[in-house]
Amino acid sequence: xxxxxxxxxxNINGKDSEKENNPQYxxxxxxxxxxxxxxxxxxxxxxxxxxxxATYLITLNWLIERSMKLWVHCxxxxxxxxxxxxxxxxxxxxxxxxxxxxxxxxLTSNGKLWVxxxxxxxxxxxxxxxxxxxxxxxKCYGICxxxxxxxxxxx
Length: 155
Known about the structure:
Blueprint: E1 4-8, H1 23-31, E2 35-43, E3 46-49, E4 56-58, H2 60-65, E5 70-74, H3 77-90, E6 97-99, E7 105-107, E8 113-115, E9 125-128, E10 142-145, H4 148-154
């Protein structure tokens, strides 16, 4: 049984590119009991959500208030550097973050293995979009998916 069901960018019943990373969309997924993987940018002293670019302006407080439910994918090196500085200089340790491109496996700031699609099974890992490659998720700690509701319902 998985311990974490993680909505990919707020999606729970299928990919919706128009709504992904929208703060309200993310809040809906959280309200339904899911963790959420978000795409974060830090540009010109502000935080933004968005997959391909900095789209939705958010605050540091927005991140901190939801930090127990967020898996923060830093979209560039400037963003991960900013979160690391906040952690080390200001003692903000609640934000769970990582950076990756197409690495097979990435270690998150909380020590979880974030595994690229098609690279399963890896014990105690997070399987990302396992449906795209029909990944074996039997050994996983959690799943991150656009159809996470199906995984949760099927246990």
